[in-house]
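Give me the fold.
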Amino acid sequence: MQLATKPGPELTRELADIEARYIARHPMSARRQCEAARHMPGGNTRTVLHYSPFPLVWASAKGNRLTDIDGLDYLDLLGDFSAGLYGHSNPVVLAAIKKALDDGIVLGGPNQYEARLAAAIRARFSSLELVRFTNSGTEANLMALSTARALKPDRAHVMVFDGGYHGGVFHFSHGSSALNAPFRWLIGQYNDVDGTRALLRAHAGEIAAVLVEPMLGAGGCIPGTREFLGMLREECARSDVLLIFDEVMTSRLSSSGLQGPLGIQPDMTTLGKYLGGGASFGAFGGRREIMAHFDPSRPGSFEHAGTFNNNVLSMAGGLAGLTEVFTPTEAVRINALGDELRRRLNELARERGAPFQATGVGSLIGLHFTGEEIRRPSDASPKNAASKDAQLAMQALFHLEMLERGYYLARRGYLALSLPTTQDECLGFATAVDEFLAKRRPLLERTLGSCRAS
């Protein structure tokens, strides 16, 4: 059932009331926002961190606990949008970074960590026969796409998917963003097997690469089906198109990302987020014959510059984290914890008859105020502006109430569990969600309709 109406007076009043309480509880964050707005547009330099009436400002963190500048504590369920897998200041990672600091940074040459980190990553991802480092997932995707275009100069197009997010200049929510890099984009529908196959075949001679997340991240934690992703592998091989898996977020969903459990080998893979141990990081790699073009000892090789590509702090922290902290055993544990939390949330929604559901895989979870089956972003989004306003208002109300209860997550309803998270903490959050659904059941029914998640 889709949303039936725009925000009514009751929802509007409840949202105004909780915003007033939020403002009263966080005077220092409010003052910081006003001061920051004097120097940065909207007081912001990372758009996803902004939400109304103003974002919390953090003073300190330890493990999976955050303290804001007003002295209030929160359970961190956001994990810096999946970059904070290790939690805050993991002692093993912190010790490695401190040693690197003590030994000297900005070295201006190869260091003792980068080749070892490359080897550790290759051991996890069999499709990565060779790998190079960058400074972010955005940059990794830019390099992968530029590589595809350089190898196929007579093919100008790149296929992506509605709802896909591949970095700050590769954002495809309801079309291409105004700030996207000027590639020629061909936008398909996620999990649409027949439609995508037809689109690929119709433009086979024009497409250099297909760039896809095995699970949409910012698009709502929507897993790609094995049939859909397998079809992409088959059609790309058929038409000599490079298949690029963006595993910047999903690489944490097993010890070998999602490509491992799926058994699908892309031509190239891009990585980022937690793999720098909490410092800036990105990587791209793939088949040897592709990546060999970056070998500077070869005549006519591709040049790949970047002052901080082998940033010693990222290399040292990333190596310690991947080899000593995020072991295959830990990957199984944290993702099983996420699967159980998702199952419990969906069970509670069914019991309440609430238009609410949790999607995702493992430790990455998307929360949606709809009971419809979600296979692509459009399934979770209302079809008219008034209904969308109602859904956004309900998301804001939910977000602010969870903050009031001491749970930090994204406004859009996104969770990324960090390794310190416990089963009891997940149960506590599930209880908070259940109480929200119980308390707001009449409001949910009037505003969103009464329906059960599939």
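The longest strand covers residues 207-212.
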